[in-house]
Amino acid sequence: MNPIFKNPITDAESQYFWQAANEKKLYLKTCNNCQKPHYHPRTHCPFCFSTNTQWIEAKGTATIYSLSTMRRVETPYTIAYVELHEGPKILTNIVNSTPEQLQIGQAVNLTFQPSENGQLIPAFEP
Amino acid sequence: MSINGIAYIMGAYEHPTRKAPDKTIAQLHAECAAGALADAGLTLSDVDGYFCAGDAPGMGPVSMIDYMGLNVRHIDSTELGGASYMAHISHAAQAIATGKCSVALITLAGKPRTSPHQPPRTTTPEYSYESPYGTTVVNSYGMCAARHMYEFGTTSEQLAWIKVAASHHAQHNPNAMLQNLVTVEDVINSPMISDPLHRLDCCIVSDGGGALIVTSAEIAKQINRPKVKIIGAGEANKGQNGGMLDLTYSAGQKSGKIAFAEAGIKPSDIKYASIYDSFTITVLIQLEDLGFCAKGDGGKFVMDGNLISGVGKLPFNTDGGGLCNNHPANRGGMTKIIEAVRQLRGEAHPKVQVKNCDLAIAHGTGGMLGHRHASATLILERES
Ligand SMILES: [Zn+2]
C-alpha cells in the first residue's frame, strides 16, 4: 500500500532539492566549515551557522529509526524517520510494503513515487 | 536574579463550555478574562499587562486589547503552542519584577471542535520537505511511542494506565467531556489510529478556554484568595537538530532542570503534577524528562494507578486533563495551570484533592514531539 503524495510546495531554498528528485536523486547538504551533513537542507549550517554549505547526493541506503502507520484514512500509509548511510535521520514514507513487514532497525532503500502533479518524491522501501 | 517569590497567581478560570458553535473565539477570550478577574475580585481596569498566544484571533494582543477595552502598559504574545501559557506566567513574573506591570491577564480560547479547519502554514522552513509525507499530529507522536517501546520495552498496556488514571479523575468533573471510567483493556481495544497509539491514547478535541491573573506580592496581599506563589520556571526547545534527532526525550529535560533549580526543590518534593497530555506517550516521556523516574522507566512508573489521586505516588491531571476533560484550542497548557492552582488552593474536587498540597508542577509541550516542539515548566507553591 502506498500513500497518496501531495504536491510539495517548493521555495527558493528547496527548489534544487526537488529538481534533483525528478532525476531520482536524493540530496542533502554538508558543511564545508564543520564537515557535518544535515537534513532538511538549508542555506545556513544548523551546527555552525556557516553559509559555506554544499549539496551532496545520498547513497540511498538507510535503516528505519522509527515509524507509525496511519490507519484511520482510506489508504493507510507509513511515516518514518530513516537514518541515512550519511548520518542524518530524515522524515519520509516507507512504501511498497505492508506495515507487518516493517520494523525499527530494518534496512531500507531509496525509491521515488510520483505526486499528484508528477513531481517525484523520495521515499524508502524494504 | 530570579522570579522565585516575585509574583502570585491570584485568579484562575476555566470556561465550562466544551462545544461553542454560538460563540466567537474573541468572545470566549473575553468570557474567560471576566471569569478570572471575578475569581480574583479584580476588574478589567486593574489589568496593566496582557498576554496571549497564537490562539487569539486577528493580530493577537493588538486585536484582543482593543476588543476587550483593555488599557495596558505591558504586552506579550509569546507563542509556544500549548506551552505558551506556562511561559506567559513566567514572563508576567519577570515583567512584575522589573516594574513593567502589576496585574497581568493571560487568556486562551479556541473552537477546534466546531470550526476545525485551519490552513497549514506553508511558509515554515520545513514545510517543503515534510508536507508530502502525510505528517499529522498523531503519527508524529506515534513515532515517539514506537521508538520508546523499541529502546525501553514500554508497552501499550503501560501507556493505557495514563488514560485510566485520567478517567478516574474525570468521573468527578461535571464539566469533563468524557466522564466514563475506562480500563486498560478499553484503551488497548479501542481502534488503532496511528501505530502504536489507539483512539483512547489520544486527547479529546474541545471548544473552550481559560484565563489567569498574575499579580505582584503587594496586590496579592489585598486579595482575599489563597495565594499561589510562582517559584520556578523554565523554557526550552527541541527539534530535528539537522537530522541528528532522538525521539526518546523532550525539551522538558532542559526546561524542568531550569525550573527545579530556580525553585530550589526536587521532583520528589512535588505533591501534584499537571502534565501535558496530548497523548499518553506525551505524559510518559515528560515524567521521565522532569525527573520523576529514570529515562526508560516511565512505563513502570505509570502502572497500577500510580498517577491516580489517593492511590498512587504522583497524582496527575486531577481535572481529567486533555485526555478526558478539556483541550481548548488544541492547547492544553492553560488548563494544566488552572488545575494546579485549584490543587494548591485546596479547591479541587474533594474526591481528587491532594492532601497538604503545597508544591505543584505544571508542564507543557507545544508543537509536535516528533518534529519540533517547545517545553515550558512552572513550579508553584501554596503560601500559607
Ligand atoms: Zn557547519
How would you describe this protein?
The complex is a heterodimer of chains A (126) and B (384). With 126 residues, chain A is mainly beta. Chain A has one domain (15-125): OB fold (Dihydrolipoamide Acetyltransferase, E2P), CATH 2.40.50. Chain A contains 1 helix and 8 strands; from the N terminus they run H-E-E-E-E-E-E-E-E. Chain A has a 5-stranded antiparallel β-sheet. A 3-stranded antiparallel β-sheet of chain A has the order 2-1-3. Chain B has 384 residues and is an alpha/beta fold. Chain B has 13 helices and 11 strands. In chain B, strand 10 and strand 11 form a beta hairpin. The structure holds zinc ion. Zinc ion is lined by residues 31, 33-34, 36, 45, 47-48, 50 of chain A.
Termini gap of chain B: 24 Å
Bound molecules: zinc ion
| Main CATH class of chain A | Mainly Beta
**Percentage of residues in helical conformation of chain A:** under 10%
> Could you tell me how far the N terminus lies from the C terminus of chain A, measured between alpha carbons in angstroms?
13 Å
CATH topology of chain A: OB fold (Dihydrolipoamide Acetyltransferase, E2P)
What value does the Rg of chain B take, in angstroms? 19 Å
Strand order across the largest sheet of chain B:
3-2-4-7-1-8-11-10-9
Q: What overall form of chain A do the CA principal axes indicate? A: globular
Largest interface: A-B, 48 and 40 residues
**What is the ordering of alpha helices and beta strands of chain B?**
EHEHEHEHHHHEEEHEHEHHHHEE
> In percent, how much strand structure appears in the residues of chain B?
15-25%
Helix tally of chain B equals 13
Give the topology.
The complex is a heterodimer of chains A (126) and B (384).
Chain A: H1 15-22, E1 27-31, E2 37-38, E3 53-57, E4 61-70, E5 77-84, E6 89-94, E7 107-114, E8 120-125
Chain B: E1 7-14, H1 25-40, E2 49-51, H2 61-68, E3 74-76, H3 84-97, E4 103-110, H4 127-130, H5 137-152, H6 156-170, H7 184-189, E5 192-194, E6 197-198, E7 208-216, H8 217-221, E8 227-238, H9 252-263, E9 272-275, H10 280-289, H11 298-302, H12 321-325, H13 333-345, E10 359-368, E11 372-383
Parallel strand pairs in B: 2-3, 2-4, 9-10
Antiparallel strand pairs in B: 1-7, 1-8, 4-7, 5-6, 8-11, 10-11
Helix pairs in contact in B: 6-10
